Amino acid sequence: MLKLKQQVFEANMDLPRYGLVTFTWGNVSAIDRERGLVVIKPSGVAYETMKADDMVVVDMSGKVVEGEYRPSSDTATHLELYRRYPSLGGIVHTHSTHATAWAQAGLAIPALGTTHARLLLWRHSVYARVKRRRGAGRV
What we know:
The protein is of the alpha+beta class. It folds into two domains: 2-96, Class II aldolase/adducin N-terminal domain (L-fuculose-1-phosphate Aldolase), CATH 3.40.225; 104-134, no CATH class. Helix content is 29%, strand content 18%. It is built from four helices and seven strands. Strands 4-3-2-1-5 form a five-stranded antiparallel beta sheet, with helices on both faces. It has a two-stranded antiparallel ribbon with strand order 6-7. The model has no long low-confidence stretch (mean pLDDT 87). This is L-ribulose-5-phosphate 4-epimerase ulaF.
């Protein structure tokens, strides 16, 4: 587990280095499929003070088996993705400024080349449109 915790820590440290996260948002996880364990960033721990030992180890039901902190609030989503896609070895979840702005603009993701054309047979929305609620315009 030490090696996987170190790898997950280093990947998490790349997020602020490359401007892919704000505050403590975003996270990286990785799975040890033989043991059925996932290593994930702790919830709310600042990147500036985080250490490899702070990474949280959970089983596939989300129970913490190692670590002093709560796992990321996105743990359930990571676990579901690992269950559904057995070929996944790791997950990166960011809140990059550009991706967030693109999503908030409501723009579809265009196919920009042959790789995208194969993967995106049509333009995909980044998110479901939010319906206007009373008072939403005042935010």
